[in-house]
Design goal:
eight-stranded parallel sheet; alpha/beta; 41% helix
């Protein structure tokens, strides 16, 4: 069956592996928290095999509590979740201790940074990038509207670290992401909730190559089914859809 037909018929994805490279636990901005069991049930309903998650609690600087929530999810549902350890350069004294704690056998495979006030090319982030390089783990960094906040510069300075620019194409700003991904071999683009028009996916595939694109849902902020449908309905080959929905992220996270 062609992958688009799963979306047309509202069927669970069964002939493809799916990796959600950008998901969250808990709640954000006053939203009701989604119970973990319901999140897994929705993954099962759609056919999402594994999700890389960070905690919304960590966005509010509750790093230890949020990262512990992620560790619990990884432990309760083996194989369904991999963890992002969330750290912030606004709290530089906590970064390395928290990274060391998270990566002490708790199922973390990536690092998440969501920065306000400190650009990613600041020297304050250098210990985080060195940790990522030593561990061989990817870094998902929040960006928006074409403002990479120095992420492209950090990636140029750290060519051995895999960086993922979150929300590529957001606010219809495509070109800054395209130019950054072309310029920096270690910089990948995350297509999670990008307010795309009908040709955004096709445009990114054409301009930067499908191998540099990963997909996510940003759950609980956005619908899993809506986010996966934009890939299934894109005018690209099924082979390219499989790369975006699983192969690329699985490679970056060491699952293949």
């Amino acid at each position: 069956m062609a992958l688009i037909d799963y979306a047309r018929q509202g069927r669970k994805l069964e002939d493809i592996l799916v990796f959600d490279a950008h998901a969250h636990l808990h709640s954000i901005d006053g939203m009701d928290a989604v119970p973990l069991e319901e999140q897994v049930a929705e993954m099962d309903r759609i056919g999402i095999d594994v999700a890389a998650v960070s905690s919304c609690q960590a966005l509010a600087a509750q790093f230890e509590r949020g990262n512990d929530e992620v560790a619990e999810a990884v432990s309760r549902y083996p194989g369904r979740f991999v963890g992002y350890c969330h750290v912030s350069a606004n709290y530089p004294e906590l970064m390395l201790p928290e990274l060391g704690r998270c990566f002490a056998g708790k199922g973390f495979r990536g690092i998440k940074v969501y920065q306000v006030g400190t650009p990613y090319d600041s020297p304050l982030f250098e210990p985080v990038w060195e940790f990522a390089k030593a561990r061989g783990v990817p870094v998902l960094a929040h960006t928006w509207g074409g403002d990479l906040t120095g992420l492209d510069k950090a990636a140029q300075q750290q060519p051995d670290v895999v960086f993922i620019a979150a929300h590529a194409g957001s606010a219809f700003a495509y070109e800054p992401y395209i130019q950054a991904a072309r310029r920096v071999p270690s910089l990948y683009l995350d297509l999670t909730y990008s307010r795309e028009h009908s040709n955004m996916i096709e445009h990114f595939v054409e301009q930067v190559g499908v191998e540099k694109l990963v997909w996510g849902t940003d759950v609980p902020c956005f619908s899993m089914s809506a986010q996966v449908s934009k890939i299934l309905f894109a005018r690209i080959s099924d082979g390219d859809k499989r790369k975006i929905l699983y192969d690329n992220a699985a490679r970056l996270f060491g699952l293949t």
